[in-house]
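Minimal example, chain plus fe (ii) ion.
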Amino acid sequence: MELIDKLIKEIDKGLKFSLQNYQEQSREYPAKDIVEDSLNEIDRSISASLMRINHAGEVSAQGLYRGQALTARLEGTREKMDEAAKEELDHLAWCNKRLEELHEKPSVLNPLWYGLSFSMGAIAGLAGDKWSLGFVHETEEQVVRHLESHLDRLPKDDKKTAAILEQMAIDEAHHSEEALESGAAELPDNVKKLMGIIAKVMTKTSYHI
Ligand SMILES: [Fe+2]
Ligand SMILES: [Fe+2]
């Protein structure tokens, strides 16, 4: 019963993070002091599409961490996952705010990405803490590389989005490091490859819909 209660709460959270414009921030918006850029329509559209991908990524991060928090065995690890998920909430809030500023809607596929990430996180948690941490480490490594590529592709006048992505990249690198320090195992190459493929499908589709 307890597990079903927990699952229902998690589904409720998943729908909230996927579909609502969540904007509760515990840390300041990194773009708050930057004067609004006057982006032309082409630049706005590029930034908005990139931001929709990052938003989908942060929805997935919620799924991943919450899935792991549900099944991780060691209490210490569970707390770390919960803590990381809370930090990721700032990212989600910043992405929502920036999407709003760019007059763009989030990806319609977000509930799907949340569900998929939640399941993957829960499975990683069941596999044991060192694998679960290994999964976090690898995910965050891929996210850092992805954010860096977005910083390259971003229209150069869009200083606000750049400030957000830069702070997110710092945080994700920290999450990756923390997972490693907590005893992350190195994932097999095939698993890493599979994660990369799933991420590619997600980023390609979220750019458009
Ligand atoms: Fe994040
Ligand atoms: Fe992260």
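The two ends are 37 Å apart (CA to CA). DSSP finds seven helices and no strands in the chain.
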